[in-house]
Amino acid sequence: MNSVFGYIGSHFIRFLQESGRIAMLFGQTVVFIFRPPFDVREPLSQMEEIGVRSIPVVVITAAFTGMVLALQSFTGFRRFNAETLVGTVVALSVTRELGPVLTGLMVSGRVGSAMAAELGTMRVTEQIDALHTLATNPVKYLIVPRFLASLIMFPILVVFADIIGIMGGYLVSVKVLGTNPTIYIRRTWDYLELNDIYSGLLKACVFGMIMATISCYQGFFTEGGAEGVGKATTRAVVLSSLLILISNYFITALLF
Amino acid sequence: MVGDTSVKIEVVDLHKSFGGKDVLTGVNLEVRNGESMVVIGGSGVGKSVLIKCIIGLLRPDSGGIRVDGQEISSLNEKSLNEIRKKFGMLFQAGALFDSLSVWENVGFGLKHHTSLRDEEIKAIAVEKLGLVGLSHVEDLMPSELSGGMRKRVSLARAIAMEPEILLYDEPTTGLDPIMADVINELIVQMRKKLRVTSIAITHDMVSAYKIADRIAMLYEGKIIEVGTPQQNRESSNAIVQQFIQGRAEGPIKVR
Ligand SMILES: Nc1ncnc2c1ncn2[C@@H]1O[C@H](COP(=O)(O)OP(=O)(O)OP(=O)(O)O)[C@@H](O)[C@H]1O
Ligand SMILES: [Mg+2]
Prior knowledge:
The structure holds 2 protein chains of 2 kinds. Chain A has helices at 2-33, 41-50, 55-78, 86-124, 127-133, 138-176, 181-191, 194-220, 225-255. Chain A is an all-alpha fold. Chain A has one domain. The longest helix of chain A is centred in the middle third of the chain and has 39 residues, at 86-124. The mean pLDDT of chain A is 93. By secondary structure, chain B is α/β, with parallel strands linked by helices. Chain B has a domain at 1-83 and 197-248: 3-Layer(aba) Sandwich (Rossmann fold), CATH 3.40.50.300. In chain B, strand 9 and strand 10 form a beta hairpin. In chain B, helix 5 (118-131) packs across helix 6. The relative contact order of chain B is 0.17. The model of chain B has no long low-confidence stretch (mean pLDDT 91). The chains are: A mainly alpha, B alpha/beta. The interface between A and B is medium-sized, with 14 and 24 residues. Bound molecules: adenosine-5'-triphosphate (ATP) and magnesium ion.
């Protein structure tokens, strides 16, 4: 009995410690964003890595999501003769929910693992120690550019995802299901509010910060050689994805 | 020889353990201004841990470290960074930034702490690379270098800012004997010309005798003997004798 409580207790304490350290790293990162010197080159190259190189993944994910949404909602709405509402459902689902969440998850898988592996390798090969000895703060030099780039590129990718997703739904509805294109487009625009798009973009910003903070944290505090880097990489992706899904619920509930 | 006798670095009763494993158990060491101190000791006794404590990469569990009389073991990161500008460090495995080219590695400190332009930094980097016997490597990436070349690039990076204090973690291991001598000569020149204070870690006794003003032996978490190379050779301490002669039998337990 005692050992059960001990087990739960020690895990709970570890969880709290870990959360505290992540929060501290987040706080430091935000502080260092506003502390000179300001570097543009490194954030730009990270933006290319995080944003530009993720476009293919995001486009394919969004296109097929929009397409399958059209198929599924058509099946449902036909049962009560409301096929014309497919456009509305696709637009709302993609902008409010699936665009940001699926983009967040896919980009975390792609970029979060790379961030954790890169920083983890730098840790175990003493490159982070070397930064310290060169009087350079590694949070400023390594984490701030990745954090900023994620914060900026996630919403931009989500805009892409929104457009492509809606176009995917349109294509399937018009070309496959034979919906009248004018009606489809009118139904899309009539019920779509700017708020739907804003809320999706807000989510994207939060997801970007979560992914960057968690992945950098895992990489930054890697221990135990190549094996440790592997573990950090896995943890970065799993934990970012979980936190994205959990925070998604709470943001939605708050904005509802 | 030694310029003056004021103390540059002072380590007092330093303790450091990792998860219950005691590594340093009361290290005392004084390095004078302009002196070249060599720390010798077996693999895994904590030589690297000692210099990492001195430059503030590891926080000691207890004890003091004073640089120019200033206690550094309790400083925060920001003040520590000011102190670190006095230091250059050569890492045992190089620790080059693998996303930057060789010259960007060597010029890293100049780039971040001076207002020099890139061409000027590159010129300085090429000059420092020349000092460590490397030419035409400035545009390569670290992954394209051999182990010994990486170590020399790391040394070039350590000396690029012309620091007051240099810490060398095994500067000559992994180099051929001739290149090792080039590095030894460079270390001697650094001290003579630039009056650099240095701590070098090595188990290469040829190198130790060549570069040291004094040699300190680290054993079982403590410095057991400090003396000039002459005193070291003639030491009556059986542990020191076993180490410098490289015998398997003796008081040192091989684990
Ligand atoms: N960050 C760390 N975490 C846990 N243990 C460590 C850490 N750094 C060093 N140690 C332990 O401290 C001991 C001393 O390590 P250190 O690297 O200082 O040895 P060394 O004297 O430099 O050996 P070598 O000559 O082989 O480089 C080792 O047993 C090592 O396992
Ligand atoms: Mg070592």
